[in-house]
Structure formats: structure tokens, C-alpha cells
Design a protein that fits this description.
By secondary structure, the protein is α/β, with parallel strands linked by helices. The chain has helices spanning 29-34, 36-42, 77-89, 108-113, 174-190, 223-226, 232-242, 260-266, 301-315, 333-336, 343-358, 388-400, 405-415, 418-421, 452-455, 462-475, 477-481; strands at residues 10-13, 46-49, 53-54, 66-70, 93-98, 127-128, 148-150, 157-159, 194-197, 250-254, 276-278, 322-323, 363-367, 483-487, 494-501, 504-511, 517-518, 529-533, 542-543, 548-554. Strands 11-10-9-5-2-1-13-12 form an eight-stranded parallel β-sheet, covered by helices on one side. A five-stranded antiparallel β-sheet has the order 14-15-16-20-18. Strands 6-8-7 form a three-stranded antiparallel β-sheet, with no helix packed on it. Helix 8 packs parallel to helix 9 (301-315), helix 11 (343-358) packs parallel to helix 16 (462-475) and helix 12 packs antiparallel against helix 13. The chain is globular and about 75 Å long. The protein starts with 9 loop residues before the first strand and ends with a strand. Bound molecules: alpha-D-glucopyranose. Alpha-D-glucopyranose is lined by residues 59, 62, 99, 162, 198-199, 254, 328-329.
Amino acid sequence: MSDWWKKSVVYQVYPRSFCDSNGDGVGDLRGIIGKLDYIKTLGADVIWLNPIYASPNDDNGSDISDYYAIMPAFGTMAELDELLREAPARGLHILMDLVVNHTSDEHPWFKESRKSKDNPYRDFYIWREGKGTLPPNNWWSYFGGSAWQKCDETGEYYLHVFSRKQPDLNWENPAVRQEVYRIMRFWLDKGVDGFRMDVINYISKVPGLPDGPLMPNGLGDFGPGCINGPRIHEFLQEMNREVLSHYDVMTVGEMPGVSPEQACRYASVEGNELNMVFQFQHMELDFDERYSKWTLLPTPLDALRRNLSTWQTALHGKGWNSLYWNNHDQPRIVSRMGDDSTDALRTASAKMLGTLLHMMQGTPYVYEGEELGMTNVPFTSVEQYRDIDALNGYRELTIIHGLPHEEAFARVNGHSRDNARTPMQWDDSPNAGFTAGEPWIMMNPNYTTIHAAAQINDPDSVFSYYRQLIGLRKQYDIITEGDYEQLLENSKHFFAYRRHRNGQTLTVLCGFNRETIADDEVAPYCTGTQLLCNCSESSSGCWQPFETRVYLSQE
Ligand code: GLC
């Protein structure tokens, strides 16, 4: 098998919010087809589509009711086939989302399963008797409340670590695994080039489903009983043997709670499981002790530097990293770790953060709008949220934790997934050129200034800069292959590192300074050919806000 995915850059499309071709306010496949040239211009070569299968949309498509059908709001199978012709015609690969830790409760398997204890599909899901009047164990559900739902038909409970409408599949049952492999073969035979696998390290549960440690919300953490469970490697190796090894594809497993050591196994160079994983540690450094992701804290630079450097070093030669700042589950990085308070700071910090990530070893992912420096959204009321997670988060903060509206709202606003889900900003026409109708979620009002049309031909734009970053990865093998050396490990302002390969050195200097500072810390490293700089007024003696530079030198 070739490893084309090592030199690739992935562009993530959230279909609901990318481009609406028919004016119903929801993005669709035809809209995506119309924007393939845009993605090609950026230089990405793989497109990951968030779930496009039939779904009642309790969790925006991560609750699938038919794995063999396209969600009507997104289009038809004929349009998907067209996409699978048009993308490769431009040298673009297509990755599908594979959500198989759970299905929708409206999936025919579940509808059968709930009917009776002896239904042939009963064992497709995880059913247990309650403990008296209580659920089978104390696990919380990620979207709030208990992870168990009682069904009248049999009086038993089913497990759902996400919403009530997302019952967990029982991977212990070989018939479930065979059905999943059948789904995978169907799409691979159609021509898709791989999968992003939704919470795939949740599929093996600890036998007996023991209670989890108590959390501040009074429920038990399902993590120890669900994440990286006892049979996870066996299941993934079987999937690899039965399906993946027969195709030249790329796979990335979404894996909350994964450590670098575990990642070396999941994404080992032997390649008997997956090609790479999405780790979460760098996205959790700002978490709040009590309110977890609903935090008001900044990400500390030293923790970020330590974490990403550890991943770079630990996986070098042993596994393969995925590199990401954004996706449909995270607030916008420029608002989170950069500065979106002025246009100049937003542009500079977006470019700096892009540099930091794209010069590392691994496969970079660009989430739609990141290449424009799109920001978090100034929501003004809870009614504007669409995401089950934001709505439940607000409810939990106000009702269980008793926070006043202002604080709860501020916490959810900062980290809501809806920040990333407002429509792509194409131009400054009404609704940013996303739709001729009423968008399914509000637009970020800043689309009148932050949009693709203004950036594509502007050499100083975030878009042009991302294009350069992607181009450098294609041009210099040191970026894909070089080893990693952390520099200035105690710096208050800089995230700096070096890559080495065959006598070459790539030096990457990224400033997290909001104001101009003296450059003495980094000056000694400013040698070699300067490949990139995000700053037009770069001058010796000082370092502009969020300035970044990349140097290449030969021994
Ligand atoms: C993953 C998805 C997220 C979804 C959840 C449940 O984390 O990325 O969007 O809500 O799984 O499927």
C-alpha cells in the first residue's frame, strides 16, 4: 500500500454549512461540487466530508438511520456519484465519515432491537436491566443526563454515550462487525478513498460495564469503561484485515482520551490498524476543573508547547500524526489561541497558528473557513444555538451547576461547536453567498469583511498564506520526513522548533506576543534562507505581534 496520505493536506467540509445550491438554507452535494476548484486552488488534495447519510439529525448527521442512503437535504446518490467523478478529475480524494460506535434510534436495526428480548437484532445494541429504579450503572451521557434510556417494550435500558437518539452498537457481536465491514466495502467500492472514523476508540466496552468515577455533575464518567477498551485493537485489526488492507485508502480515527503511546499502536508504521488518529490533548489544555470544556480560561503556551512537542517526538518513526486546530466540534482557533480583536491581529495570528501546525510532521487538516481566518460567532441568545451539545451545555450549567444566565451563556458561547458551524463565508452578498434562502443557522455578521472573494487574489490574505504553507509541504520533504527538536522551551512568547533531515534544518519561529517585543530570544535562530514570514514590516531588533518566520538551512 502506498502512503500518499503522508504528503496530503485534508480539507474538511461540513456539508450543511459549505454551499447551498438550491436555496433551502442547507448546504448540499451540488454546492460542494461547485466549490471543488476553490479547494483545489488552496492546494489541499483530500476532502473529508462530515456525515452525509440519511439521518433524523438529532446530532447533525452523526445519528445515522441508513448507511446506504444520502440525506435528502444534501442531495442524491447520483450527485454523490458525480462528486466521486469530479473530485478525482481534479486530483482530489474523498474521505467519508464513518459513525459506527452508534446508530440513530431510527435505524431499522434499533427499531427491531427494541421490540423484544428475543428479537434477532436485540444483541446489536447494549441492553441491560436496571438496578431497582436506577439505570444499570452511573455513566453520564456526553450530551447530558444518564447514558441509559429505559424502553417500555421490555423494561430494559439501552446504552447511549451520546444522545438518547444515538444508541451504542454492541461490537462484541460479530454480526455487528460484519455489517460495519459491509458498509465500508460498499463505499470503498464506489470509489471513496478512506474514512474518518467517529469516536472509534469507544467501540470496545469493559465487560460488566462498571460504574465510573463521580464527576462534578453527580454522574459517573463513562471514559474508563468505554475508551480504549480491552478489545479495541483486536476489532481494528480485524477491520483492517477484512476491509482496509484490500484497498489503497487513508484512515483517521477520532480518539478522545488517546495518549501518544497508544497512538503509536493505533497508527503504527506497520499499518495493521489505522493510518493516524485525532488526539484531543491539545484541545483540552484550557479546560476548566469544574465545567470542563465550558471554560473561560486561555490555553497556556507552555502546556501547548509541551504537548505538541511530545506528540511530534513520540510518533516520529513509530506512528503518524494528524495535525489540526479546528473541526466541526471545536471553536475557531483564531478566536481561541490567536486574537480576533482587530483585523490586523486576526490575520497575523491566523497565519502564525497555521505555520506552527503545517511545519510539523503529520497530515494537516484545514477546516472550512480556517483558511480565511474565520472567527467565533457573537451569539446573543440561546435561541440562536442549533447544536444539541450547546443547548444541553447551557441547560446543565444553569440547572445543575446553578450558574446565572450571563456566566453560563459566556461559557457556552466561547466553546460551542456552533462557532464552527455557521456557514462558509464566500463573499459579501446577502448570507455570504452561502444560500439564496434563509440559512439553517445564523451567519457570522463579520462575513461582510471576512470572506473568500476578498482573499483569493490578495497576496497578503490568510488564504494566500495557507496556500503557500500547503505548497511548502509538497515541495520540501523535510516537512514531511524531518525529525523534531523543540527550541526555547521556557519562553513566555515563542513556540519555536527545528526539523532536521539529511543535513538540512528547518527552523520555525512562532510568536504568541500580542504586542511588539524585542527579538533577542529568537534572533540567534534567524539564519538560513527565509522561506516564509507572515509579517510585512518584519525588522531586526523586534518581533511584530504574532510574527512568524520559517528558515531553511543546509550544513
Ligand atoms: C464525534 C463527532 C461529533 C459527534 C459525536 C457523536 O465526536 O465529531 O460531532 O457529536 O462524535 O457522534
